[in-house]
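Page header: ASSEMBLY MODEL / two components / 259 residues total.
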Amino acid sequence: MFDGILTVIGLAFLLFGLFVFFSAVLGLYRLDYVLNRMHAAAVGDALGIFCVLVGLIFLHGWSLPAAKTLLVFLFLWLTSPVASHLIAEMEVFTISDIRKECEVEER
Amino acid sequence: MPILFFILWLLLAGEVTLHVCLWGVVASALLSCFCHQVLGYRLSPRRGTLGKGLSFLKYLGHLVAEMLRAGFVVMRLIYTRGRKMEPKLIWFDTTLKTGLSQAILADSITLTAGTITVLAEDGRFLVHTLDKSLGEGIEDCEFQRRLEKLEA
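Prediction written out in full:
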């Protein structure tokens, strides 16, 4: 009974994670500029990965693979912002006129 | 630091035998030596480190909650607004003093979907937001307030 409930919760997380990734891919098409598209991809990196991996932890139960899954979270969330910084910096400082793409504000 | 490496080794090996432990001790010692001598990393616990560690864990919890909340917000924007977004680049100064805190703030902003740190140099941040509503009050966000408390 308890295992059945955990399986259902795990599957729900997995399916929702898939839906989040679908939304992220849809965002890549619906948004029209590289920096905007990066935000759509970030949804998959944060919410999508979280739901899929938590779903896997529920399906496997608390075990060694589950602990390794937490390590995946750690390494992914440590490295992903670095790549995002570099791509965004390259785009903003190499485009001829960034003000055509978005408003720039000084605070 | 060697203890952290050894725990990581055991976690990845998936079993605790004499063979695994011996190789783990050797690998951890070599890696620690490399980090200490070549990369210059130091782990030197001081008074109050434990308390700050707990506060940092609370910060991580808040970060994960914000990441998930922002994910839902951006998903809603993707479905409802599409190309009618009003993206914005915002320059602002942070009140954080140390490089480590500034790096953590930059990473936290990037991990939160809808905002990306483009540049973080000498306390000056450049952040891209998917919609102008996401950038309101970013120069005095909760991440910064919590990191200020950790710095103190």
